[in-house]
Amino acid sequence: MTKYVSVGKILNFHGIKGEAKVGFTKNQEDFFCSLNAVFVKSENDYKKLDISNIRLNKNFALVKFDGINSINELMEYKGAFLYVEENTIRENLEEDEFLIDELVGLSVFDADGKKQGFVVGVSNNGASDLLSVRTNSKKIVLIPFVKAIVTDVSIKDKKIIINNIEGLLE
User: Fold this and answer.
1) Topology of domain 4-92, per CATH?
2) How far apart are CA 127 and CA 110, in angstroms?
3) How many CB atoms are located within 10 Å of the residue 132 CB?
4) Average pLDDT over residues 94-111
5) What is the second-level CATH architecture of the domain 100-162?
6) In the prediction, which pLDDT does 155 show?
7) What gap in Å lies between CA 163 and CA 149, rounded to an integer?
8) Each residue of 53-92: b (16+ CB within 10 Å) or e?
9) Which of 14, 112, 139, 162 could make an SS bond with 19 (beta carbons 3.0 to 4.6 A apart)?
10) Where in the chain is the domain with CATH 2.40.30.60?
């Protein structure tokens, strides 16, 4: 079964010729502009929308879909999330990039091999991604997902190794 990953959302229309104003993940301009098609979820199925043109405007993209030539044709998609197949995302990941759902649930260990907790979420503070970790004492702490702190990620072994600097987990 094909898995889909959200890559954006149709926020509104732009102009009268069916162009969509689309919000997408920060710092993913190159990836988003490389897409030839996206999917929208319609009830329990995914409908493919071929892209004829994408241009960037401030913090969003203006997207023209094949076969959508007016505001009326676009309105049914307003507010819809846009998806791509998970494989499309995986092909574009760099060596130290991961999907959020791969990280959630991984155990977190310090450099001495002591389990410190597990990842319950991932967020971004503008400067870096942050791992939300539930510690052994049941507290949620935020760990910057940077190489100096997160020294190793093994999806296969379901674990993350951190440099537990003083005050990080307190």
Assistant:
1) Elongation Factor Tu (Ef-tu); domain 3 (2.40.30)
2) 23
3) 16
4) 86
5) Roll (2.30)
6) 87
7) 5
8) ebeeeeebbbbbbeebeebeebeebeebbbbbbeebbeee
9) 14
10) 4-92
